[in-house]
Amino acid sequence: MKKNKVLHKKYFVKYFGLELILLFLFNPFFYCGFSQKISETGLPYIQNYSPADYNAASQNWSIVQSKEGFIYAANNEGVLEYDGVTWRTISLPNFASCMSLAITKDNKIYAGGENDLGYLEPDTNGQLQFTSLKNKLTTDNFQRIREISITEDAVYFLTTKEMFVWKDDHFKVYHAEGRFNFTKTIENEVFVVENNKVIKKVRGEVLETVIDLPNTSAAVTDLIRYKENELLILTYNKGIFITHNGKVQVLNKQTSKFLEKALGRKIIKLS
Predict the structure, then answer these.
(1) Is the pLDDT of residue 30 over 50?
(2) What is the 3-state secondary structure (H, E, C) of 115-181?
(3) pTM for the model
């Protein structure tokens, strides 16, 4: 069995009854030494697929799974589809790269790539093909769609400068004051991080600033709901924070200090 070159270490934190898994990326040399000391007994089976297996580029950006169990990956050569046996590439116009994918509750897959955005729908043979929504926009030059967020009634396509919201068969556009980094749907509300440290929320026709981290060198990598009107904010280089009464404070000094060196990327809520 092939070894992944990157170790995803799980670091558990219990704070006020909330259990979290924090995921970090470590040096591959650390993984090589660490893997020799642990047993693989009881570990889940992992199948690795190389570019030669799926016959496309080596870089993949996003992944979703349909209700039928099919796997879809955003690849530099399009959207990869895997049915458990064979791979197929769904091309975007001009053979553009696909950078982001998201799937709705009704199993509809949206895709974003280099200067294009749209969704997958079946052709006359029942195979999914890409359908572009670019002609619904007033601009035709927006570079790449970095991320897609889904709510119950809208789809949010994010670039570094704009966020295109597809709702009721037309687009609304939000513009960045600086640079958009990523977007996140939390309890059917869409948040967007700007300039690495400013967290905004979609509220009607505007983007409302929720939090502006006081540390100018902080880089937000993820956020989740903690309690009502409170967020946990993970940063790449300054630890983890919690919002309280509209203010930001360090969640836990010991944990936060560890995270400053651990390159935290993602928070997963367990309970």
Answers:
(1) no
(2) CEEEEEEECCCCCEEEEECHHHCCCCCCCECCEEEECCCCEEEECCCEEEEEECCEEEEEECCCCEE
(3) 0.82
